[in-house]
From TrEMBL:
Keywords: Metal-binding. The lineage of its organism: Bacteria, Pseudomonadati, Pseudomonadota, Gammaproteobacteria, Oceanospirillales. The keyword RNA-binding does not apply. It comes from Vreelandella populi. InterPro entries: DUF34/NIF3 (IPR002678), DUF34/NIF3_sf (IPR036069). GO terms for cellular component: cytoplasm. A divalent metal cation 1 binds at H65, D102, H221, E225. This is Nif3-like dinuclear metal center hexameric protein.
Length: 253
């Protein structure tokens, strides 16, 4: 077993959590038992994931989307009460990392997505690698938008929504940011990307893609952010004497 505070401190350090100005608390959000043997990871700390953690007798739940978001109601009632009560009744720790887990150069969501799809990372368009959220690079070989979409669908096991630009030439330069980053499309276009991949799509995104002349692929918020927390959990398992299990709670969004 490993002490909870040692695990949290290691994650904080590895992800450089204190350097990010975020919309939530990064690190320990709900304290449970001090000694940790089993860590269950998942994308979001929803009730279904907590129920799996209880059944597996997990000591810690590690997620990308935790609780206590900026501007959300403070009162612990209703759904929030049920979730937190589940953790406290079973003495389970909740640990969450949001932007630090998007940005990490090796096990972040953007890094892991590029790794799985074979994209060559060249840098970030909004900061240094490890700090920025809008990543850029090149495909292993030029390809058409439909070929890229099929590859993404096969890798993520989710059919993406594709907004095609009028220019149907082969794509070589690509930019991406996992999750809800559709409004970064303008910056991607200005930097010369021929295609931009993110998780979500808004009504305005279609018009931006068409008028900017850049392909847009909405590959799913959940689908694009499965991999960072898995990598972090596996890293913890390698570093410490703990068991790690990732549970993928189905989410088409």
């Amino acid at each position: 077993m490993t002490h909870r505070d040692q695990i949290v401190a290691a994650c904080d350090h590895q992800l450089r959590a204190s350097t990010f100005k975020d919309f939530t608390i990064n690190g320990l959000q709900v304290a449970g038992r001090e000694q940790v043997k089993r860590v269950m990871s998942g994308v979001t700390a929803c009730q279904a994931l907590l129920d799996e953690a209880v059944a597996w007798q997990a000591d810690m739940v590690l997620v990308h989307h935790g609780y206590f978001w900026k501007n959300e109601p403070i009162a612990i009632t209703g759904m929030k009460h049920r979730r937190i009560k589940t953790l406290m009744d079973h003495d389970i720790n909740l640990v969450a990392y949001h932007l630090p887990l998007d940005a990490h150069i090796e096990m972040g969501n953007n890094a892991e997505l590029a790794k799985r799809l074979g994209w060559k990372v060249e840098g970030c368009l909004d900061g240094e690698l490890g700090e920025g959220l809008l990543w850029s690079g090149r495909l292993p070989q030029p390809q058409r938008i439909h070929t890229l979409a099929v590859q993404i669908a096969g890798t993520l096991q989710r059919t993406p929504m594709v907004i095609e630009a009028e220019n149907d030439s082969d794509i070589e330069r690509i930019a991406w940011c996992t999750g809800g980053a559709q409004d970064m499309i303008a910056a991607a276009s200005e930097a010369g990307a021929q295609a931009f991949v993110s998780g979500e799509i808004s009504e305005r995104t279609t018009h931006l893609a068409r008028e900017l002349g850049i392909h847009y692929i909405a590959a799913g918020h959940h689908a694009t952010e499965r991999y960072g927390v898995q990598a972090l959990g596996e890293w913890l398992a390698d570093e410490y004497a703990i068991e790690h299990r990732f549970v993928d709670i189905d989410n088409p969004a």
